[in-house]
Design a protein that fits this description.
The chain has 601 residues and is mainly α. It is 77% helix and 0% strand. The protein contains 26 helices and no strands. The longest helix is centred in the C-terminal third of the chain and has 36 residues.
């Protein structure tokens, strides 16, 4: 074997690893929100978690990535430790898909059908199609093209590795080396070390399959190496768990114990049976199909054996990472940075967090509005705590989204990030206005300001409209419903009109001696906050609509809908205006008025 064979081997290995990385990331990107949807359905059922872990790993072609995601979800409090165990087991089975795909390279025969089954025959064509789709297609086709290109590069690397190592079949030292690997302990250590270095069991199994094509690797040597490769892949999760909470670290150790215990059980059982029955294939030359079969059999048998004992694995991990003496509750991370390694999942998590932030804002506002009628110290304190939580959400989300924006994302994921970036500030301001309402309510209590019956009726109408626009905005935001978001702006215009009319009706009652000047002061504060809350709801809805249309010119959009050019806008405005009307009052006008622009905050 010459030095040029070594160069070819290194180049083939580089192409193989790069192609696998590109293909996996592209598969993950095209899965996008679907992947997040799958992961969000985790339940307490180990079998369901196993199936979900299998599917996710088969999609992204990396058990390490799936396990790191599980660690991140546990650290974020989205998943319990016992749920993660099933996911980890499923990931080990899902990672065998790559080995089966690569095993097709070992097909030999003169039949056209058999030749076409070999990836070496159609990978170049797939690369050509992928290049064409990448160069001339739109976003989704570009992503599919990248998957094809990644696979073509992977197969090219596999072919280069196989060709460069073919002279090794005639080297005595190479045969002796793999003969030494038939020692179970040494074979397991070598497999674990190789996988720990490249941090991918799929890649290391593929390299072993390429070595098998030299004809110098027997099943006696390949078997312990494959076992070691499954152990080596746990290194990624253990490294990723550094700095995480106790349950997240336990998740990484469950992955380690699952593979170590599985290896001990499988090898012990295999060697005992081999001593009794003397398996004829044991000393035969390993094939790519044989490697895939061993890899799958190990993971399926180990999972079947250990799944009923998932609680034992959990207790073993707890013993490894015990609770402290203070036994304080586990601290969870709002957005775990480990998920950034799988951007589509990280985007989905950020969207859910944004929805949680919006829900806190809604609850805080409704609670704050209730205190303007009846003061409650407990509710007031709760609103203040919620405002602090919303501030924390905004800080964490903003930082996380900036980091995410530097990742390779699909158009849908980019839109989700842009929508969040344009809306979290408005949600935070709604939370601030909730605190303002608390301050106004405290003033009403301290000064014993009395509301007339007519004033209460007016505020009931206005507050119903404000609650309606806030509820619609939060619901539409959480659902990502841009069609429904288009109904927010006309309702915001109605709120503006209601605010003006409340002022007018109050002045009339003030002149008639029905209302007091003190009520006028707190009323002005209430109206200012209600109007600006509606403005922020409008801003959120407009941001959703504009980002979805790949543009962001708020003034242009608002000018268009308010100019009368939009019949839907006029129809919706009239409908809302008819829904929120004041009871007749002699000294007050009865019309809501002409729509006006948003007030500045």
């Amino acid at each position: 074997m010459s030095v040029f064979n070594v160069f070819t081997l290194l180049g083939g290995l580089a192409l193989f690893l790069y192609g696998m990385d590109v293909m996996g990331k592209s598969l993950e990107q095209i899965a996008g929100g679907k992947l997040q949807g799958i992961l969000s359905k985790m339940t307490a059922s180990p079998v369901r978690g196993l199936l979900l872990g299998l599917v996710v790993t088969a999609v992204i072609q990396s058990s390490s990535a799936t396990t790191v995601m599980a660690v991140g979800f546990v650290n974020s409090g989205l998943m319990q430790l016992h749920q993660a165990i099933g996911v980890i087991m499923g990931a080990n089975i899902g990672t065998t898909v790559t080995a089966w795909l690569l095993s097709l390279t070992g097909l030999q025969g003169d039949s056209f059908f058999i030749q076409m089954l070999s990836p070496n025959a159609w990978a170049p064509l797939l690369g050509f199609v992928g290049a064409a789709m990448y160069l001339f297609g739109k976003e989704r086709k570009k992503s599919i093209g990248t998957i094809f290109l990644g696979f073509a590069v992977l197969m090219t690397g596999m072919d280069l590795m196989s060709n460069s190592m073919s002279p090794l079949a005639e080297e005595p030292w190479f045969a002796d080396l793999f003969l030494a690997f038939s020692n179970p302990v040494l074979g397991v250590l070598v497999g674990a070390l190789l996988t720990a270095v490249i941090q991918s069991s799929s890649a290391s199994v593929g390299i072993l399959q390429a070595l098998c094509m030299t004809g110098a690797v027997s099943y006696s040597s390949a078997l312990p190496i494959i076992m070691g490769q499954n152990i080596g892949t746990t290194v990624t999760a253990i490294i990723a768990s550094a700095g995480a909470n106790k349950n997240a670290r336990r998740t990484a150790f469950v992955h380690l114990y699952f593979n170590v215990i599985g290896t001990v059980i499988f090898l012990t059982g295999f060697y005992l049976l081999n001593a009794i029955f003397q398996f004829p294939f044991y000393h035969e030359t390993a094939t790519t199909f044989g490697i895939a079969i061993i890899h799958t059999t190990f993971n399926v048998v180990t999972t079947a054996a250990l799944l009923p004992f998932n609680r034992v694995l959990e207790r073993l991990a707890i013993l490894t990472v015990p609770d402290g003496k203070d036994a304080s509750p586990e601290q969870t991370t709002l957005l775990d940075e480990r998920l950034l390694s799988t951007p589509s999942v990280a985007v989905g998590r950020a969207v859910l967090t944004g929805g949680d932030m919006a829900e806190i804002c809604r609850t805080a506002l409704l609670q704050a509005m209730s205190t303007t009628r009846k003061w409650d110290d407990t509710i007031a304190d709760e609103v203040l705590r919620k405002e602090e939580a919303v501030d924390h959400y905004e800080d964490v989300l903003g930082t996380y989204l900036v980091k995410l924006s530097g990742k390779s994302l699909s158009r849908e994921d980019n839109r989700a990030i842009n929508t969040l970036l344009h809306t979290i500030g408005d949600f935070e301001r709604i939370s601030d206005h909730s605190v303002n309402l608390i301050e106004t309510a405290r003033e009403i209590r301290d000064k014993n300001v009395q509301f007339s019956h007519e004033a209460i009726e007016d505020l009931n109408v206005l507050e119903a409209a404000v609650q309606d626009i806030v509820n619609r905005t939060v619901d539409d935001f959480q659902k990502g419903d841009c069609y429904a978001a288009a109904k927010i702006e006309p309702l915001e215009q109605v709120v503006d009109g209601l605010v003006r009319e409340v002022k007018t009706r109050h002045i009339a009652r003030l002149q008639a001696g029905v209302c007091t000047i003190e009520y006028g002061f707190v009323l002005d504060d209430l109206l200012t906050n209600y109007e600006r809350i509606a403005d922020h709801c409008s801003n959120i809805a407009v941001a959703m609509i504009e980002v979805a249309e790949d543009k962001f010119d708020t003034h242009e959009y608002l000018n268009y809908v308010k100019s009368g050019a939009s019949e839907k806008f006029e129809h919706r405005y009239e409908r809302y205006r008819g829904r929120y009307t004041f009871p007749p009052e002699e000294a007050a006008p009865v019309s809501v008025g002409t729509p006006a622009g948003n007030a500045a905050d």
